[in-house]
Specification:
Number of domains: 2
Largest sheet: 6 strands, parallel
CATH class of the largest domain: Alpha Beta
Helix content: 40-55%
Number of strands: 10
CATH topology of the largest domain: Rossmann fold
Strand content: 15-25%
Strand order of the largest sheet: 4-3-1-2-9-10
Radius of gyration: 18 Å
């Protein structure tokens, strides 16, 4: 008899709408699955928060998504993955729900893509400070790391891309060009929206690796190993959205990131939880 847990949704969360680029990849790769996405827009950005703050945010969201019936959690945020993934796995160990982050899958894709072993990383200061990407990629790779404190907030603002944005992106690209990288990891789920700029500035011979493609592959593998894939992937599943901030702003900007209509967005208030230091 099929497991009743197969019919439950996959939970996905991020500090804002950036994680919708990951959800987009999941919707394409796993069309028969249901999803519930939470954007913690009231506390955006995550990139300048301490590890302790990030762990507290992640734990509250995980509890909310478990209450929503999630059979698996995807941390669609580099900063939260770096700070909170071990804690989340420990916290969820008794729930039967697995949790995946964006760092290891992206690092795996980057290693596979790079012929020279020279890889670049664009990420938030919190992700860079954690060293999580460097650990995931390993010591045999020449990793050029560029912290980008203002790039995710610029993209999240929803303002039209102007010369200021182009200049900002060009400034972050300069060290990568100098290092002659052949692969660049977009270490924030917001960054795919400026991928055309990045590709133009880096050159077409440089491979851009986003978090979403690697995560989709990892999620499908994890569900298959636990016998949690829905039987009929030919029937489109449902997807729904929660956010902690302004609902209309989330819907308007989220449509741009997801490249699909969002429909109803439910405002939620998260319950604070105690987090061990």
């Amino acid at each position: 008899m099929a497991s009743p847990h197969r019919e439950r949704p996959i939970g996905v969360f991020d500090s804002g709408v950036g994680g919708l680029t990951v959800l987009h990849e999941l919707l394409v790769a796993l069309p028969g699955e249901d999803f519930v996405y939470l954007g913690d827009t009231a506390r955006f950005p995550y990139g300048d928060k301490t590890p302790e703050q990030l762990r507290a945010c992640a734990l509250e969201i995980a509890e909310h998504l478990l209450q929503a019936g999630a059979k698996l959690l995807v941390v669609a945020c580099g900063s939260a993955t770096a700070a909170a993934l071990p804690l989340l796995r420990e916290h969820l160990s008794g729930s039967g729900a697995d949790v995946l982050g964006v760092i290891a899958p992206a690092a795996e894709l980057a290693r596979d893509a790079s012929a020279s072993g020279r890889i670049g990383l664009l990420a938030t200061p919190a992700t860079v400070a954690s060293g999580a990407f460097a650990d995931a990629i390993g010591p045999d790779v020449a990793l050029t790391v560029v912290p980008c404190p203002d790039l995710a907030p610029i993209i999240q603002s929803g303002s039209p891309f102007d010369e200021r944005v182009v200049d900002t992106v060009r400034r972050y690209v300069a060290p990568l060009r100098a290092a002659q990288v052949d692969t660049v990891i977009l270490g924030s789920t917001h960054y795919p929206l400026v991928a055309p700029m990045l590709q133009r500035m880096l050159g077409r011979e440089v491979t851009l690796v986003s978090c979403g493609a690697g995560v989709a592959r990892a999620v499908e593998r994890a569900l298959a190993e636990r016998d949690l894939l829905r039987d009929d992937q030919a029937v489109e599943g449902a997807y729904r959205f929660h956010c902690t901030g302004d609902v209309e702003a989330f819907r308007a900007l989220g449509t741009r990131f997801l490249q699909m209509p969002l429909g109803d967005v439910e405002h939620v208030t998260l319950t604070p939880l105690e987090v061990a230091a």
